[in-house]
Amino acid sequence: MTTTTIDSPTRPGDTAAAGPLSGLRVLELGHFVAAPFCTRLLGDLGADVIKVEPPGAGDPVRQWGARHQGHSAWWSVHGRNKRCITLDLKKPRAKELALRLAAQSDALVENFRPGQLDKLGLSEAALREARPDLVIARVSGYGQDGPQRDRAAFGVIGEAVGGLRHLTNHPPGNTDLPPVRVGISIGDSVAGLYAAFGVMAALWRRDAAGRGDQRGRTLDVALTESIFSLLEGALPEYGALGTVRQPAGGAIATAAPSNAYRSRDGVWVLIAANSDPLFRRLADLMGRPELAGDPRYQGNQARVANRDTLDAHINAWTAQHEAAELERMLEAADVPATRAYTVADCAADAQFRHRGMVREVEDAQLGRMLHPGIVPQVPDDPGAIRWAGPSVGAHNEEVFSGLLNLSADEITALRQEGVC
């Protein structure tokens, strides 16, 4: 694999933590969420990610979310650990430079609409000519082939076609409001996760010692399929029984009790007592031990069939106690439970803080920022947040001169010509 050295600050305590992907170089031709999320995960674990953006405003996601000091706070995380360069890929000179970068990369991740890179002269054949063993990860709405491959799609479309949006709602008949969005761009993020997993699988196949298979591989990740793959038993249940899984609100359709219950101070508390021993402990804690012996609630299937009456009993109990008290009692009884966290709760959580999942990071544009930590955790080689999301074109000179051996005059000419 290609090796690179980056002289950049790391989080205090992480200065020696290169990460398990140190030495891997990834070229990102991505925008919005899915491909950049994939490369952020790889960068967190040490990969050298070179992100190509159009000159000027850069990636449109830089304009998304709440603003802090005139900049997107989200970008601080979304663009972290990436070397950001600019290239107008519609210009022949930019295409040439992109191919030279591909030649020095182990993997390329993109999420243009199918066929778009071909029109820019960056077809798979051109990329393979630049580097035959390049791993290419393509993320799109519907995939690279099939009757719907050319349809426009964002994450929300993937969530709808993949069956998730139908399920994120209250039970039928409870409301006429539209199905509720999960609250984040989960379709894009799940596709990005699959792309990252696929990149590593393809690199393993290419580079594993003794396999003798040095071919590059192309990955085809569809937003729709990424979500569809998460639907648990919904498809086999439909195929075998003809049943269409319906929204269940805050409950789990196949287990009870497992729902959100309102406390006396108006906080939603999640209680998951959906096994027989857990339910007995919950019934005792509620002062209602007879519920565990009631035939309507003996065994999970019986509890699911009588969920509404069972939830009414639990709601009547939780309404008598404040959330903090409920959490203390349920923890003491060893019943899985918690209030529904806001992001403020997450930021203050002692477990998240202890494990480095809430970190203070110095952003060159925004000052001290809170960032989520790195997942997965690799204790012996944990990676690092080496820098926050940089400005547009922040690494042009570094990459063009350091990797492509362009002179200062050549870089100036590229800028004057609008190439970068």
Automatic annotation (TrEMBL):
The keyword Transferase belongs to this UniProt entry's keyword annotation: yes
Alphabetized SUPFAM superfamilies for the sequence: CoA-transferase family III (CaiB/BaiF) (SSF89796)
InterPro entries: CoA-transferase_III_domain, CoA-Trfase_fam_III, CoA-Trfase_III_dom3_sf, CoA-Trfase_III_dom_1_sf
UniProt keyword annotations, A-Z: Transferase
GO molecular function: transferase activity
Top-rank taxon: Bacteria
Transmembrane intervals: none
Gene3D superfamilies attached to this UniProt entry: Crotonobetainyl-coa:carnitine coa-transferase, domain 1, formyl-coa transferase, domain 3
Protein's name in the database: CoA transferase
Gene source species: Pseudoroseomonas ludipueritiae
